[in-house]
Prior knowledge:
The protein has nine helices and 19 strands. By secondary structure, the protein is of the alpha+beta class. The protein folds into two domains: 4-122 and 140-165, PmbA/TldD fold (2-Layer Sandwich), CATH 3.30.2290; 214-438, no CATH class. The strands form four sheets. A six-stranded antiparallel beta sheet has the order 3-2-1-4-5-6. It has a five-stranded mixed beta barrel with strand order 7-12-13-15-19. The mean pLDDT is 97.
Amino acid sequence: MLEREEIEDIAHKVIDLCQADEVQVFIYGSESYLTRYAENHIHQNTGVSNLSISVEAIIGRKMGEASTNRLDDESLRKVARNAVELVRISPEDPNLLPLLGPQEYEEVNAFYDEEITPMDRAEGVKRVIDMCRRRGLTAAGIFSNSRGFLAIVNSKGLFAFHKSTSVTFSLSVMAEEDGAGWCERSSRTIEDIDPEEIGEIAIRKAEMSRSPREIPPGRYTVILEPAAVDSLIRFLSFSFNAMAVDEGRSPLKGKIGLKVFGENINLASDVYHPLHRGTPFDPEGVPTKRVQLIEKGVAANLVYDRLTAQKHGVEPTGHGLGLRNTQGAYPRALVMEGGESTLEEMIRSTDRGILVTRFHYENMVDPMNLIVTGMTRDGTFWIEDGEIKFPIKNFRFNVSLFDVLSSVEAMSEPVYSRGVVVPAMKVNDFNFSSGTQF
Length: 438
């Protein structure tokens, strides 16, 4: 992977070759490795290395873009020339803003310099496969690791750079009589990944979920584990886009400053949260701010790209999507505050209800009313008198997030789950619209 000094040298070489009023260069590199297993055997081991150089050339109110994945001098000359040629045949863009000058970025340490070999991944996979085989169960999943960087350099002196690493272990376990369990963990470092802990959770779910019973669809008290909560919360992101609110495409149109969720709901976009450590700038080079989106149930703030911020006379929040972006801004690194309950305490406090491990096939049905659908998966259980009594067959749900997040009775401490930081939740009156055979 390229070092910071090499990246800066390449970018300035392209800038010098590009005959335009303003030039911005994006350099992205990544190395990704994956071990995939199924039917208690490793069946795939891959490694992919990517490098991309993208050039934005600006002359007046026109912009051209060109990309390459080669670093030789001729390729750099060609990509610089192509970007300028595309400017000349492009129409003027009245919304095109000038490039930013130098910015100050908060340092985010998201990179772990550790070697993870195919054998390291294979040994981790072998441990969970052995656990499953001893119990007559079948394991499938992935063990992956990656590292990458993003740099933005322009002709006005801006230099933005971020590098990160990621490790993910995912396990699905199948048991006879329709038993299924699942667990996944992600972190910046392999030190936080414990295959045995992942295996025990997924195996317990699979064994508990054998011979599920059918119960009628309806409205129930549910306890959603973090993986189920994250499936719902990520659908909120587009709602807080200031451009979408302006254009009437957001369900929060006319609701900013109003209480639209429960008093106990607090949600932020926070790339600096220790469980995220995200990129501290957006593709425009704007430093990313922490933004409190929901505060005590109130739709408190929006995220702004530069163009929308200029129209409103406010500062951009660093959530833009690029110079010629027509979609506005997108809040990254969602963090939902939790509570003091544990999952076990939520179960003990429930007279009759349903425990949900996770959802799948989630889709937005009605964006303006935040109505989402999907199905339960990999461990759905009936709770009665504060105890898990038996497994139940999977349901399809159909809910409005306005309703769900106004009916949260209890929450756990938040954890990182598939790209967001969320707690487990106990939610009243959750609508399961039908059963499903999966």
